[in-house]
Amino acid sequence: LARVGLVQDDQELVAAHFRERGYTAELTPSCSDYGVDVFATKGNVKLAIQAKMYGGTARKVNREMVMQLHGAKDYFDCTGAVVATDGEVAGSSLIGFALFPRSRRAP
After folding, report:
1. What are phi and psi of 65, to 5 degrees?
2. What's CA 44's distance to the chain center, in Å?
């Protein structure tokens, strides 16, 4: 039960990151979201964003997660997709990723 609150906090943090950059960001309902946690829009750009906060664990963002998000991006007619993570990304999942160093993360 405590983890549910942490997941919500992670999603709020990601939404705040995009709001600070001029996007309108809204969290999705916790069910029937097809893996999308946040939608962020700015002008003609609509992003499907999935928060995967695994820092400090051995779990990695894997190819299946990336493919699910890509499908959700198309389903919701988004122009792009973002996996926001503080963890690691499995090597086979790196196609199409833009990796940012920790110093560029929102505080």
Report:
1. -65, -40
2. 19
